[in-house]
Write a structure and sequence with these properties.
Length: 124
């Protein structure tokens, strides 16, 4: 029951939190450094992967379809490389940060844990 509640509500909650952080940053509202610098990186992969999963489900017409773990992992690596390696080289606004890479990874693991919880429950 607990995992079902998380599965049902994490996406809109994460989107709302990310939006509020974005708005606060744009309005130059003072927010704690941890929140300002890291929270959206933690929320990124669950949001991106959920949108990808939703889109593929709509295209395929299969509401039980799961993004393969390898593809979700590859997308996480692409995000990490793009935002933490490439963009800092070409745009001063971005900084390379290994903590961000770890947060993308934690977000990836969270997504898998929540979205594949039904599979684990049926196997046990």
């Amino acid at each position: 029951m607990f995992i079902y509640t998380i599965k049902r509500f994490y996406f809109p909650v994460f989107m709302l939190i990310a939006l509020l952080i974005f708005i606060a940053q744009r309005l130059s509202i003072d927010i704690p450094n941890l929140v300002n610098n890291y929270l959206n990186d933690l929320l990124c992969m669950p949001i991106v992967l959920k949108i990808c999963q939703y889109t593929v489900r709509q295209i395929k017409g299969d509401q039980n379809l799961q993004i393969p773990i390898g593809i979700a992992f590859a997308l996480t690596i692409v995000y990490a490389l793009y935002f933490e390696w490439l963009l800092p080289k070409v745009n001063d606004r971005y900084t390379a940060d290994v903590i961000d890479v770890c947060l993308y990874g934690i977000g990836f693991v969270f997504f898998l844990w929540v979205e594949r919880s039904d599979e684990r429950e049926h196997k046990e």
